[in-house]
Amino acid sequence: MIGNLAKLSYVRGVSQTVASGIKAAAVPVKVEAKPTVAVATQVRLAHTDIHVPDFSDYRRDQVKRPNAKNDSADDRAAFTYLMVGGATVTTAYVAKAMVSSFISSMSASADVLAMAKIEIKLSDIPEGKSVTFKWRGKPLFVRHRTPTEIAAEESVSTAALRDPQTDGERVKDPKWLVVIGVCTHLGCVPIANAGDFGGYYCPCHGSHYDASGRIRKGPAPLNLEVPFYEFPEEGLVVVG
Ligand code: FES
User: Fold this and answer.
1) Strands laid side by side in the 138-144 sheet
2) What is the CA 67 to chain-centroid distance, rounded?
3) Residue 51 designated active-site
4) What residue's CA is closest to ligand 1, atom 1?
C-alpha cells in the first residue's frame, strides 16, 4: 500500500481571484511523482484478527444481562458458608483424631491393664487361712474367716478403735477379708495369724491388727487398706 501511494500523487488547484481579473482555471493537473525508495523501519500490527473466545456457556444467567440486578450474591454467600463450615468440621475432626491418638499413646498398654486386676479362686483358700498374692507390686491378703472370727470382729465396738470402722464396712462377704498387706506405720509386711488379736502382726515395730485388718495395738495409725474388689460369680473374687 505504501508503494502505490508513492507511485502517484495528485495536486488540485484552487479557485481564487487575482489582481488582473483573470480567473484561474480549476483544472486538475496530473503530476508524475518521482519514484522513491521506501524503507520500513518498524512493523505495526493491528491485531484485529484475533478470535476472542466466547465464555457464555460458562457464565451464570444472572451476569449475561448487563442491565439485570445481581441477586445471586446470597447464593454465592451460602456456598461460601457451606465450604467454610465443611472445612471447619473436617479440621475439627482431624484435630480430635490427632489429640485422641496422642493421648491414647500415653495410656497403659493392654498387658499393663491386664496386670491391674487379679482373679482369685476362693475354693483354693481353706477356712481359717490367709493367703498372700502379689498385686500391683504389693502383697495382697485374702483371708477365709471362720464363723468364730466373724462373730468376734462384728462384736468389736468402734469406740475402742484407733481408726474406727465396723467390720461390716470392711468386708463385702463376712467370710472373706481382702486387704493390702502393707503395714500403715512404715510399710513392712505383717505376718498372718499372729499378734494379740489373731489377725496380723507387724514385727518391725510391733503393730497388732485383728481379723478385720483393723489396728488394735502398736504404732500403726490406720487400718490395713481395703482395695476395690468384687465377686463376679460364686467362688471367684476380682481385685482391682
Ligand atoms: S512398719 Fe509395721 S509397725 Fe512399723
Assistant:
1) 130-135, 138-144, 176-180
2) 52
3) no
4) 186
Q: Do 205 and 186 meet the contact criterion of CB atoms below 8 Å apart?
A: yes
Which of 182, 183, 224 gets mutated to test ligand 1 (max ligand atoms within 8 A of its CB)? 183
Q: Cα-Cα-Cα-Cα dihedral of 159, 163, 167, 171, to 10°?
A: 170
pLDDT tens sequence across 156-207: 998 989 999 999 999 999 999 999 999 999 999 999 989 999 899 999 999 9
User: Measuring from atom 4 of ligand 1, which residue has the nearest CA?
Assistant: 205
Which residues lie with the beta carbon below 6 Å from any ligand 1 atom? 183, 185-188, 202, 204-205, 207, 218-220
**Cα 177 to Cα 226: distance, rounded to the nearest angstrom:** 9
State mean pLDDT over 46-55. Answer: 81
Cα torsion angle, 122, 128, 129, 130, sign? positive
